[in-house]
Amino acid sequence: MNKRSFHFFVAFIFLIVISLGWLFCQRPGMPALKTMGSIGLLQLAFTCWSWKRLQGNMINPYCLFVVAAYLFTFGQSLLYPFDLVSPQRDLLNSYVLPFSFQDIFNSQLLTLLFLNFMHIGAICALKPASQVSLNSEHPGDSALERPPISHFHQLYGIKLVGWGLFAISFLPFFVKSFTEYGVVKSYGYGAIYEQEVHIGLANINYILSSYFIPSILCLLVAYHTSRRAKFFFLGILLLDIIFTLFIGGRTQAVILASVVLLVQHNLIRPLKWKELLFVGLSAYLFLGLLSVISEVRSNSHRTFSDYFSNTGEVQRFTSPITETFSEMGSSMMPLAATMQLVPQVRSHRYGSTFFYSLTTIIPNLGFWDIHPGKEYATLGDWLQRELQLGYGPGYSIVAEAYLNFGIFGFFFMLLYGFVLARIFRSITPEISKNHPLQFLLVILFCQLGLATVRNSFIAIVRTVFYYLLVVYAGVTILNRHKSKTASKLQ
């Protein structure tokens, strides 16, 4: 039995165990939820270990995506075996919908089933680590690992594209940041989402500002060998993380911090074990801070001292880490609510949400009052209307797969995992330095598309068409121009 066959075998064992739970547990209670939580812990550990064994690199966008997917869509269930779920966050005590043990149990089963199929799809796309190492030692054996002739020209193109995006996004980004700071300072974090919504060209300032962080990532990749430039661009990213946390935007701050870790380990310099221990400790403290931010961010006229003073208040009642995991894990709610609504109240979509997501490549230049993609593919808004909530509940790719195809959504998750692994498998410290453009595109995909673990498919479409294709086209055009110029000079 070769390596891949063994990982397929273990994954199918998990599928059998999950299916048995579905067939034989007719009246689940807390013991059943704890059992599924334990299975989820084992499945998460197996998924990350499996990637490490097959690919040889655990600090990779795929493992980051998998961990985020489990924390958001299964986070509370991971705490059930240890009785650590915060009572205020527990979906069983939800005031939004009366979720029963059966509702949570069904959501657990479907989540584990779909995430397992996602990893089976990923295994199909992977090569054993021994082959990866062999190809990296003999670059000529693989086009993916072979250092491209235009390596220097790629860096040249990335620099120009990075500075170009920086030039058009710098001022809009700081205008947006100061505006958000003023709104949050006066009214609290929730007021950001209560501002007037602009459509089409009227939203140009926000559109341009969204290219600022991608521009910094472009420049960080282009100048990663320059000590001063590297620390300058890392400093900008760190300041943005601090600012985002201060105003209360936790998700984007966590994603950007994770992307910085990926760049450091896979491009600048691989982390050693002592450094990894320090990163682990920092991540522990960082996650604990998120629960404090959740308690404080609705307050107006707050300062940094409010966060420190509130830390003690949170610790008096619960652990900040378990509070954070309980809150993140409540993102199973969209799936549980969708399973209550579909197909009993609303019918399945049969792939239409994916089609309407693709329509977002057409910008709204006044053609529609509401873009079809926003109306039919922004599923967090749809669920908010269905449940008549006063806030956005978010969504998840697992819930969207069920909404479209029911239990047969595992076919979509199988394909989804295959595509993710094809994208992420090339990110290793050895390969990244030889393929700067490829590395940059994967990092941008990770930075902009990781939010799909608690969003719908539309986020990926926007990421690919509005950001990755812009960067790829710009670098490719400049690369060809530089190559032609060099050929003429020769």
| CA-CA gap between termini | 54 Å
Oligomer: single chain
The Rg value, from CA coordinates, equals 23 Å
Q: How many helices?
A: 22
Q: Strand-and-helix sequence, N→C?
A: HHHHHHHHHHHHHHHHHHHHHH
Task: Sum up the overall morphology in one term.
Answer: globular
Strand count, sense and barrel status of the largest sheet are: none
Beta-strand portion reads: under 5%
Mean pLDDT: 85
Counted beta strands: 0
Relative helix content: over 70%
Summed up, the domain count is 1
- The residue ranges in which pLDDT falls below 50 over 5 or more consecutive positions are 132-149
Protein described:
The protein is mostly helical. The protein has helices at 3-24, 30-55, 61-79, 101-125, 129-137, 151-187, 204-209, 212-222, 227-247, 250-268, 273-296, 304-317, 320-329, 333-341, 352-358, 372-377, 379-387, 397-405, 410-424, 429-432, 436-449, 458-489. α6 (151-187) runs antiparallel to α8 (212-222), α10 packs antiparallel against α21 (436-449) and α11 (273-296) packs across α12. The chain starts with a helix and ends with a helix. 39% of the residues are buried.
